[in-house]
Amino acid sequence: MCFRYKVLGILSIAVAALTISLSPIKAAAEDKQAIPVPPNTEQVKKEARRIAASEFDFTYYASAQPAGQLKDFYRLRLTNSGWKEKTLLKDLEQIPGLQMEPALRSSLGQNMMMFEKEGVTLIINFLPEGVFPDQKTRFTVAQGKIGLQSAPSADTIPPVELLAKPHKEVAPTYPGAALISLSEPAGALTATYFTQDDINAVAAFYKNKMPNYGWSLVEEKAPEKLEMSQTSNMESWMAQLSFVNANQDTCNIILSQAISGQAGAAKMEMTTILVNYAEKKK
Fold first, then answer.
1. What is the pTM of this model?
2. pLDDT tens, residue order, the chain (282 aa)
């Protein structure tokens, strides 16, 4: 039971890392790295996120090296430091009844590396090469321990239930979306969901349903395609809906969709839903 919950937790973390922001963000400060950093590689962002009942540190990088060389670097350096490489897909195959989209399975197999050491899990995810015009390789390093203390007792655990619902229901949950990250400080809420539905359908859902929760739409940014490298096989779209209620609280729904795949092959479509709620400061 714990094995199944742990593997599904790792899957949620992997999906979260695959939905890395496509907009480069400068790091506020240089942090000491416990994990080696390849040459010609720049840290662009770092954050702590609660995913699948676990606290994980996410570090985002941009590198001049191709993904193949970066994988060789990590495989050599980490295994020499006592890390054991694991294969998530093999563990997933041991869970009866678990179904996964072929495109997501292919992406996890090609773009993800996973290591374990002394109870710590390390997940490295790569965006496909050539996504950005500067031709740099973007990748994410996620490090933490999988929390098992709240594992459900049911025999089947769909990924959508790996995190509980927010305590304060400020916005509707998109049908079938998986909650992969949640933060609820006093007077605020930040929740991240994952779905494979098209960004236009998701935007239409929130535009239609938010008034039922007392929200009025004050600004809308329709889905816009971001500029990518001409050689990239990935498309990226962004959209935003901004709402306010009678108390002047605010709620922003930020949507991002990544579509990757070559012509004639299975495409991977992922849309992330970021719900940012804040009470009006008194």
1. 0.57
2. 455 555 555 655 665 555 544 443 333 333 334 789 999 999 988 877 766 556 778 888 999 998 899 999 999 999 999 999 988 767 666 666 555 556 566 666 777 888 999 888 898 988 766 556 677 888 889 888 875 444 333 333 334 344 557 888 899 999 988 777 777 888 888 888 888 889 999 999 999 999 999 999 999 999 988 765 455 566 778 899 999 999 999 999 998 887 765 544 445 677 888 899 999 887
d(CA 191, CA 63): 29
89-98, long-range: CB within 8 Å, 24+ apart, which pairs? 91/3, 91/7, 91/10, 92/7, 92/11, 94/3, 94/7, 95/4, 95/7, 95/8, 97/156, 98/8
- CA atoms of 220 and 177, how far apart (whole Å): 22
Give me the phi and psi of 67, to 5 degrees please. Answer: -60, -40
Q: Please give the Cα distance from 14 to 86 (Å, whole number).
A: 13
